[in-house]
Amino acid sequence: MASSPRVRLADRTNPRRPARLAETVAEDLIDAIVSGRLPADSVLPGEQALCEDFGVSRVVVREALKALEHKGLLIIRQGQGTVVAPVTRWDPLDSTVLNARIRHDDGLGLLDNLVQVRCALESELAGTAATRRTEQQLAEMNSVLAAMECVLRQPEQYLALDVEFHDHIMWMAGNDVARAVVTNIHNHARVSSRYCGGELDKQITAAHIGHAAIAQAITDADELAARTAMRTHILDSWHSKRS
Known about the structure:
Layout: H1 21-34, H2 47-54, H3 58-70, E1 74-77, E2 81-84, H4 95-103, H5 109-132, H6 135-150, H7 155-173, H8 176-189, H9 200-219, H10 223-242
Protein backbone atom coordinates (compact mmCIF):
# COMPACT_ATOMS: atom_id res chain seq x y z
CA MET A 1 0.00 0.00 0.00
CA ALA A 2 1.32 3.42 -0.94
CA SER A 3 1.92 5.90 1.86
CA SER A 4 0.29 9.14 0.74
CA PRO A 5 1.93 12.54 1.26
CA ARG A 6 0.26 14.90 3.72
CA VAL A 7 -2.77 16.28 1.90
CA ARG A 8 -4.95 19.12 3.11
CA LEU A 9 -8.31 17.35 3.33
CA ALA A 10 -10.56 19.92 4.95
CA ASP A 11 -12.39 22.35 2.68
CA ARG A 12 -12.21 25.56 4.68
CA THR A 13 -14.83 27.21 2.43
CA ASN A 14 -17.45 24.64 3.50
CA PRO A 15 -19.48 26.15 6.40
CA ARG A 16 -19.74 23.84 9.39
CA ARG A 17 -22.84 23.41 11.49
CA PRO A 18 -22.57 21.17 14.57
CA ALA A 19 -25.48 18.98 13.48
CA ARG A 20 -23.73 17.95 10.30
CA LEU A 21 -20.03 17.93 11.21
CA ALA A 22 -19.56 14.26 10.34
CA GLU A 23 -21.41 14.74 7.05
CA THR A 24 -19.20 17.71 6.15
CA VAL A 25 -16.01 15.81 7.00
CA ALA A 26 -17.26 12.90 4.88
CA GLU A 27 -18.00 15.22 1.94
CA ASP A 28 -14.49 16.72 2.10
CA LEU A 29 -12.90 13.26 2.23
CA ILE A 30 -15.03 12.04 -0.67
CA ASP A 31 -13.94 15.03 -2.74
CA ALA A 32 -10.29 14.34 -1.92
CA ILE A 33 -10.68 10.69 -2.97
CA VAL A 34 -12.72 11.28 -6.13
CA SER A 35 -10.45 14.12 -7.28
CA GLY A 36 -7.41 11.86 -6.92
CA ARG A 37 -5.75 13.84 -4.15
CA LEU A 38 -6.11 10.63 -2.16
CA PRO A 39 -5.57 7.88 -4.75
CA ALA A 40 -6.54 4.23 -4.41
CA ASP A 41 -4.40 2.24 -1.94
CA SER A 42 -3.18 5.37 -0.17
CA VAL A 43 -3.32 5.34 3.62
CA LEU A 44 -5.35 8.03 5.36
CA PRO A 45 -3.72 10.07 8.12
CA GLY A 46 -4.42 8.80 11.63
CA GLU A 47 -7.44 9.86 13.65
CA GLN A 48 -5.56 12.53 15.60
CA ALA A 49 -4.23 14.13 12.41
CA LEU A 50 -7.72 14.15 10.90
CA CYS A 51 -9.14 15.70 14.07
CA GLU A 52 -6.58 18.49 13.85
CA ASP A 53 -7.10 18.96 10.12
CA PHE A 54 -10.88 19.27 10.37
CA GLY A 55 -11.05 20.78 13.85
CA VAL A 56 -13.45 18.12 15.11
CA SER A 57 -13.54 15.37 17.72
CA ARG A 58 -12.57 11.72 17.31
CA VAL A 59 -16.25 10.77 17.47
CA VAL A 60 -16.98 12.93 14.43
CA VAL A 61 -13.99 11.56 12.50
CA ARG A 62 -14.96 7.96 13.25
CA GLU A 63 -18.54 8.60 12.14
CA ALA A 64 -17.31 10.12 8.87
CA LEU A 65 -14.91 7.23 8.21
CA LYS A 66 -17.63 4.66 8.85
CA ALA A 67 -19.89 6.50 6.39
CA LEU A 68 -17.18 6.32 3.71
CA GLU A 69 -16.59 2.66 4.46
CA HIS A 70 -20.31 2.05 3.95
CA LYS A 71 -20.16 3.89 0.60
CA GLY A 72 -17.26 1.66 -0.46
CA LEU A 73 -14.59 4.38 -0.59
CA LEU A 74 -12.53 3.21 2.38
CA ILE A 75 -11.25 -0.08 3.73
CA ILE A 76 -10.82 0.07 7.52
CA ARG A 77 -8.48 -2.59 8.86
CA GLN A 78 -8.08 -2.84 12.59
CA GLY A 79 -4.48 -2.14 13.52
CA GLN A 80 -3.44 -1.57 9.88
CA GLY A 81 -4.90 1.84 9.17
CA THR A 82 -7.56 3.09 6.78
CA VAL A 83 -6.95 2.67 3.05
CA VAL A 84 -8.63 4.27 0.04
CA ALA A 85 -10.54 1.60 -1.90
CA PRO A 86 -10.34 1.23 -5.70
CA VAL A 87 -13.14 2.84 -7.70
CA THR A 88 -14.60 -0.59 -8.48
CA ARG A 89 -15.70 -0.85 -4.83
CA TRP A 90 -17.43 2.54 -4.65
CA ASP A 91 -21.22 2.75 -4.53
CA PRO A 92 -21.89 4.29 -7.97
CA LEU A 93 -25.40 5.50 -7.11
CA ASP A 94 -24.66 7.04 -3.72
CA SER A 95 -25.73 10.70 -3.96
CA THR A 96 -22.61 12.27 -2.45
CA VAL A 97 -20.24 10.03 -4.39
CA LEU A 98 -22.12 10.56 -7.65
CA ASN A 99 -22.17 14.34 -7.20
CA ALA A 100 -18.42 14.40 -6.57
CA ARG A 101 -17.69 12.16 -9.55
CA ILE A 102 -19.78 14.35 -11.87
CA ARG A 103 -18.04 17.44 -10.51
CA HIS A 104 -14.63 15.98 -11.39
CA ASP A 105 -15.73 14.33 -14.66
CA ASP A 106 -13.52 16.48 -16.89
CA GLY A 107 -13.62 14.05 -19.83
CA LEU A 108 -17.42 13.55 -19.57
CA GLY A 109 -16.89 9.78 -19.50
CA LEU A 110 -19.08 9.35 -16.42
CA LEU A 111 -21.89 11.42 -17.93
CA ASP A 112 -21.60 9.31 -21.10
CA ASN A 113 -22.11 6.21 -18.94
CA LEU A 114 -25.04 7.72 -17.07
CA VAL A 115 -26.76 8.67 -20.32
CA GLN A 116 -26.17 5.16 -21.67
CA VAL A 117 -27.81 3.61 -18.60
CA ARG A 118 -30.69 6.07 -18.71
CA CYS A 119 -31.20 5.38 -22.41
CA ALA A 120 -31.24 1.60 -21.95
CA LEU A 121 -33.76 1.71 -19.11
CA GLU A 122 -36.01 4.52 -20.27
CA SER A 123 -36.35 3.24 -23.83
CA GLU A 124 -37.53 -0.10 -22.43
CA LEU A 125 -39.95 1.69 -20.13
CA ALA A 126 -41.36 3.66 -23.07
CA GLY A 127 -41.95 0.40 -24.94
CA THR A 128 -43.69 -1.09 -21.92
CA ALA A 129 -45.80 2.04 -21.50
CA ALA A 130 -47.01 1.62 -25.09
CA THR A 131 -48.37 -1.82 -24.26
CA ARG A 132 -49.90 -0.92 -20.88
CA ARG A 133 -51.25 2.60 -21.30
CA THR A 134 -54.85 3.44 -20.49
CA GLU A 135 -56.97 6.15 -22.09
CA GLN A 136 -56.72 8.20 -18.90
CA GLN A 137 -52.93 7.91 -18.88
CA LEU A 138 -52.77 8.91 -22.55
CA ALA A 139 -54.91 11.95 -21.87
CA GLU A 140 -52.62 13.01 -19.02
CA MET A 141 -49.47 12.45 -21.11
CA ASN A 142 -50.83 14.47 -24.02
CA SER A 143 -51.95 17.21 -21.63
CA VAL A 144 -48.35 17.59 -20.44
CA LEU A 145 -47.16 17.60 -24.06
CA ALA A 146 -49.66 20.34 -24.92
CA ALA A 147 -48.48 22.41 -21.96
CA MET A 148 -44.90 22.03 -23.21
CA GLU A 149 -45.97 23.32 -26.62
CA CYS A 150 -47.16 26.53 -24.95
CA VAL A 151 -43.83 27.28 -23.25
CA LEU A 152 -41.31 26.52 -25.99
CA ARG A 153 -39.85 30.03 -25.52
CA GLN A 154 -39.73 29.73 -21.74
CA PRO A 155 -36.83 27.35 -20.97
CA GLU A 156 -37.33 27.08 -17.21
CA GLN A 157 -40.99 26.12 -17.51
CA TYR A 158 -40.32 23.82 -20.45
CA LEU A 159 -37.56 21.91 -18.66
CA ALA A 160 -39.77 21.39 -15.61
CA LEU A 161 -42.49 19.94 -17.84
CA ASP A 162 -39.85 17.86 -19.64
CA VAL A 163 -39.08 16.10 -16.35
CA GLU A 164 -42.81 15.60 -15.71
CA PHE A 165 -43.34 14.16 -19.21
CA HIS A 166 -40.58 11.58 -18.84
CA ASP A 167 -41.63 10.65 -15.32
CA HIS A 168 -45.24 10.16 -16.43
CA ILE A 169 -44.15 7.70 -19.11
CA MET A 170 -42.04 5.75 -16.62
CA TRP A 171 -45.00 5.69 -14.22
CA MET A 172 -47.19 4.34 -17.04
CA ALA A 173 -44.73 1.46 -17.49
CA GLY A 174 -45.30 0.37 -13.89
CA ASN A 175 -41.66 -0.51 -13.05
CA ASP A 176 -40.89 1.43 -9.88
CA VAL A 177 -37.33 0.10 -9.58
CA ALA A 178 -36.28 1.19 -13.08
CA ARG A 179 -38.09 4.49 -12.59
CA ALA A 180 -36.18 5.15 -9.35
CA VAL A 181 -32.81 4.36 -10.96
CA VAL A 182 -33.46 6.62 -13.96
CA THR A 183 -34.76 9.42 -11.74
CA ASN A 184 -31.71 9.23 -9.49
CA ILE A 185 -29.30 9.29 -12.44
CA HIS A 186 -31.05 12.11 -14.26
CA ASN A 187 -31.55 14.28 -11.17
CA HIS A 188 -27.82 14.23 -10.49
CA ALA A 189 -26.79 14.72 -14.11
CA ARG A 190 -29.12 17.59 -14.98
CA VAL A 191 -27.89 19.88 -12.18
CA SER A 192 -24.37 19.70 -13.60
CA SER A 193 -23.28 22.50 -15.92
CA ARG A 194 -21.40 19.85 -17.92
CA TYR A 195 -24.74 18.18 -18.72
CA CYS A 196 -26.43 21.40 -19.85
CA GLY A 197 -24.14 22.74 -22.58
CA GLY A 198 -25.04 23.94 -26.06
CA GLU A 199 -27.71 26.33 -27.33
CA LEU A 200 -30.80 25.87 -25.18
CA ASP A 201 -33.37 27.26 -27.65
CA LYS A 202 -32.27 24.85 -30.38
CA GLN A 203 -32.16 21.98 -27.92
CA ILE A 204 -35.72 22.61 -26.76
CA THR A 205 -37.02 22.79 -30.34
CA ALA A 206 -35.35 19.48 -31.20
CA ALA A 207 -36.39 17.90 -27.91
CA HIS A 208 -40.03 18.80 -28.47
CA ILE A 209 -40.02 17.01 -31.81
CA GLY A 210 -38.64 13.98 -29.99
CA HIS A 211 -41.26 14.22 -27.25
CA ALA A 212 -44.04 14.36 -29.84
CA ALA A 213 -42.67 11.24 -31.57
CA ILE A 214 -42.55 9.37 -28.26
CA ALA A 215 -46.10 10.39 -27.36
CA GLN A 216 -47.40 9.37 -30.79
CA ALA A 217 -45.78 5.93 -30.61
CA ILE A 218 -47.24 5.31 -27.15
CA THR A 219 -50.66 6.53 -28.31
CA ASP A 220 -50.45 4.11 -31.24
CA ALA A 221 -49.51 1.28 -28.84
CA ASP A 222 -46.40 0.71 -30.97
CA GLU A 223 -43.87 -0.81 -28.58
CA LEU A 224 -40.92 -0.84 -30.99
CA ALA A 225 -41.55 2.71 -32.20
CA ALA A 226 -41.81 3.95 -28.61
CA ARG A 227 -38.49 2.35 -27.68
CA THR A 228 -36.81 3.73 -30.79
CA ALA A 229 -38.24 7.23 -30.33
CA MET A 230 -37.13 7.39 -26.70
CA ARG A 231 -33.65 6.10 -27.47
CA THR A 232 -33.22 8.55 -30.36
CA HIS A 233 -34.48 11.44 -28.26
CA ILE A 234 -32.17 10.79 -25.29
CA LEU A 235 -29.04 10.19 -27.38
CA ASP A 236 -29.66 13.12 -29.72
CA SER A 237 -30.29 15.44 -26.76
CA TRP A 238 -27.04 14.39 -25.10
CA HIS A 239 -25.01 14.73 -28.29
CA SER A 240 -26.30 18.29 -28.78
CA LYS A 241 -25.31 19.18 -25.20
CA ARG A 242 -21.96 17.42 -25.40
CA SER A 243 -20.76 18.99 -28.65
